[in-house]
Amino acid sequence: MDTMRERFASVTSRLLDEDPRLAVVLADIGVDGFAAAARRHPDRVVNVGIREQLLIGVGGGLALTGLRPIMHTFASFLVERPFEQVKLDFGHQGVGGVLVSAGASYDWPSGGFTHMAPGDVALLDTLDDWTVHVPGHPDEAEALLRHAAAAGDDRVYVRLSVQTNSAPRAVDGARFSRLREGRRGVVVAVGPLLDNVLAATEGMDVTVLYATTVRPFDGAALRAATGLADAADVVLVEPYLAGTSTRFANDALADRPHRVLGLGVGRRELRRYGQLDEHLAAHGLDPRGLRERIAGFLTSAARA
User: Ranges for the Transketolase-like pyrimidine-binding domain (predicted)?
Assistant: First the structure.
């Protein structure tokens, strides 16, 4: 099976053939995947070199001309390093484009902390009107990329990862999907953490929602799911900074007594390179760690 990033290159190359409004801007990362597309569309595949602020600036300039730019590099270089340009060249200018990242929170541990971005979604939450997609499988990535490319002048972030679930789910670029129903609470699994959540909650009497589009946050689906449960206890399991979406869940349930537990990447930097699975376990995002924390949270509610 190809990776999400490989699917991004092949799908976007085809989209460039189909839609003359699309353009791709790169910063040396991912150039090989667009070599053929660059030969066919030299005016719409631009490599600015290792200049991430320029990557976003060129994308914003292309958007001002009426094109729909798709900008790609590691998440830490796409959202964090050029954040001022994202804020001004897109938000302030009122134009749209698509940011497509690689690396996620810790996909390449040997790259060190410079190539990790657990805070990317939280950072974009400080800006207005960004749609955020977090696919959990290359097929989902393709569907969401096509959705983002065709999304008019919207501002969209597509967060790709080498982590992937064993099978794709149907995605529509908007709503959470309900995979299990239960009475003791609701667990929201985001993107590539779905398989771990399903394994962790096996045998538990909980509802499991699957989220691949996290902004806008599907508060209606969460409200409907908590309506099935005996208590409005919610666990959010996100592949980025823990607690990133807790305020959105709290807002959705503001008129109901409820509790929310946000699980995700911890704030403490793990300074040993290790392997991806070791980082998952260290942050408690492997099935064993998730089961302990989810069960503990729900048990504490039963004892209260």
Answer: 2-168
Residues 137 and 203 placed together within one structural domain of the fold: no
* pLDDT tens, position by position, 246-261: 999 999 999 999 999 9
- The predicted model scores a pTM of 0.97
Q: Within 13 Å, how many C-alpha atoms sit on residue 252's CB side? A: 22
239-278 burial code (b ≥16 CB/10 A, e <16): bbbbbbbbebbeebbeeeebbbbbbbbeeeebeeeeebee
Q: How far apart are CA 56 and CA 44, in angstroms?
A: 15
Cβ partners under 8 Å of residue 1, min gap 6: 138, 164
Is 98 within a domain?
A: yes
Asked if 96 and 11 sit in the same domain, the reply is: yes
In single-letter form, the type of residue at position 124 comes to: L
Closest alpha carbon to 204 in 217, 218, 189, 191: 189
Last residue of a domain, one of 159, 189, 222: 159
Give residue 29's domain range.
4-159
Q: CB-side exposure of 249: number of CA atoms within 13 Å?
A: 28
Instruction: Check residue 169 and give its pLDDT.
Output: 98
Same domain flag for 148 and 8: yes
The number of domains in the chain is 2
- Per-residue pLDDT for 303 more than 60? no
